[in-house]
Amino acid sequence: MKEISVFHVFKYMMYELGLRKQFKPSMTVLQMKLYQLTRLLHDHYKDVYDHLESHEISSTLYAAPWFLTLFASQFPLGFVARVFDMVFVQ
Which residues form the signal peptide (predicted)? Predict the structure, then answer.
């Protein structure tokens, strides 16, 4: 892939998909996403939420890298490729 194409994909992700907002210094968008994940766990997977809370594991510990790298930092390449495919299909 040519450098200019990669730049356009990056620009699309940052501006069109809104990923740039989670990298701003305050990281309020990232904090909001982490809160939303916590609430979803609490509301739909109470057992998982309770288990994580009992061990004092916050969503920041496991989910922040997921959101900041679109799952690329901690998952197998095949899974990451599928996530990226879903992002770029939009």
Answer: none
Cβ-in-10-Å burial (0-12, 13-18, 19+) of 25 comes to exposed
- Cα 4 to Cα 90: distance, rounded to the nearest angstrom: 20
- Would you call 21 exposed, middle or buried from its count of C-beta atoms within 10 A (0-12, 13-18, 19+)? middle
| Residue ranges per structural domain of the chain | 3-89
Length of the chain: 90
Query: Which are the contacts of 74, defined by CB distance < 8 A and separation ≥ 6?
Result: 65, 66
What's the distance, CA 71 to chain centroid?
6
Q: Is the pTM of this model over 0.85?
A: no
Amino acid at position 90, single letter = Q
Can you point out the beta strands (E) in 1-90?
none
Kindly report the CATH number that applies to the domain delimited by 3-89.
1.10.472.80
